[in-house]
Amino acid sequence: MTSFTAPEVFNIGENVFELCANLSNVDLPKCEKLGMSSFTQSGIVRADFPEVTTLNDYAFYSCNSLISANFPKVTSIPSSCFNTCENLETINIPLCYFIGDNALAYIYKLKEVSFPVCNVGVSAFSNDNGLEKVDFNPTTTYDYMPIGYSAFKNCSKLKILALRSENVWSLSDSSCFQGTLIESGTGFIYVPKSQIEQYKTATNWTVYADQFRALEDYTVDGTITGELDSTKI
What we know:
Mean pLDDT: 94
Distance between the termini: 47 Å
Strand order of the largest sheet: 10-12-14-16-17
Structural class: mainly beta
Order of helices and strands: EEEEEEEEEEEEEEEHEHE
Number of strands: 17
Radius of gyration: 18 Å
Number of helices: 2
């Protein structure tokens, strides 16, 4: 089976396509929910699910043929959902506010991500050795906005982390950026100018005090919500 089409299916249960290595194309235009491990180790190439609102743990775990993922209505990426999707190049989940533990770990071709996220789980992006730029721009600000243990550990090319929020993010451990360009001193963390001094003295952030830069000074239009100016970074 190389393709599967089900125009009236609204729910894919647990393990339905697990280990279906020959399944490359899936068309589920009305599907709203994907169960746990629903596509684990399958051959799916493009995960394009315009109506899905709910993903579950391990949904696309170790889908090594997966190149792109598009979930315009999903708000949460659960634990290990895309873990070890080694060849994933693009991911579009524009409403995502929560990224679970190991959700996007061990991905090697993903270079940039942008989410309105306000909670990043343990090892969420660990060992993504192609990842260069991460941009978090929460649409809702909470008092406690955590970045979990080892969230970016061994992301060897990570040079840009933009944290756009009215509140200072909480960093779970000072080794969160171990093995990144931020740790080595050639990568930078971009935050609102008014927060730089707070970050420099905040728990676990002090290790990276020299790596903070003001978003306003590095955005094309001068605002903290603007695009980072590639000519300056």
